[in-house]
Amino acid sequence: xxxxxxxxxxxxxxxxxxxxxxxxxxxxxxxxxxxxxxxxxxxxxxxxxxxxxxxxxxxxxxxxxxxxxxxxxxxxxxxxxxxxxxxxxxxxxxxxxxxxxxxxxxxxxxxxxxxxxxxxxxxxxxxxxxxxxxxxxxxxxxxxxxxxxxxxxxxxxxxxxxxxxxxxxxxxxxxxxxxxxxxxxxxxxxxxxxxxxxxxxxxxxxxxxxxxxxxxxxxxxxxxxxxxxxxxxxxxxxxxxxxxxxxxxxxxx
Length: 253
Prior knowledge:
Layout: H1 3-26, E1 39-48, E2 51-61, E3 66-77, E4 84-85, E5 96-97, E6 102-118, E7 127-143, E8 145-151, E9 158-164, E10 175-178, E11 189-203, E12 212-227, E13 236-252
Antiparallel strand pairs: 1-2, 1-13, 2-3, 3-6, 4-5, 6-7, 7-11, 8-9, 8-10, 11-12, 12-13
């Protein structure tokens, strides 16, 4: 991360309290009503250490300090050793990840609880909650297809054919590039497992009925059978990731 981005983020953090108070003054219907809205739903964008994803969550408050949650996540899961490659001997080639056997998508569905640590004051500010959740996690492996360079026996010219990646016969000199993104979805293979998550949730929205949240935490996905990702390393029995998400939602009775 360069110095300019760091300066921008630091300045934003310094200015954010003032911006929040300015927004509070501009909106007459603020959090000050102190009403407990028992139901909540929100959607979020998730960035994690191995990719990104989408999240959806519904909740119901047991009381002002505890909230039950039911959630679903759809995530892309990359391998940290993936290196983007390109064939240097041919023009107009497409990039690909050498050694990658499968593209991995995770589908999580489960529940948990939030515990309030800091209640939002009447004049705005933030509400801080600790949370934990867990449930079912299914990893879907989509095989990688590549455009492979071959010699046409009839014309003795180079041609490309689409083949599923085979580490024993496909190498950097005969891989032209990745095939269509849609290729291989009809061969999705599921790997069922479980997951657990924990972290902190911050609500900085000025309207009680319209929460705006930032969440940071750690997640562990564990599988009974190992999930193959890369050709030259052992399959993965688990994925351990750190993540941050940004979401908006609605509270109601």
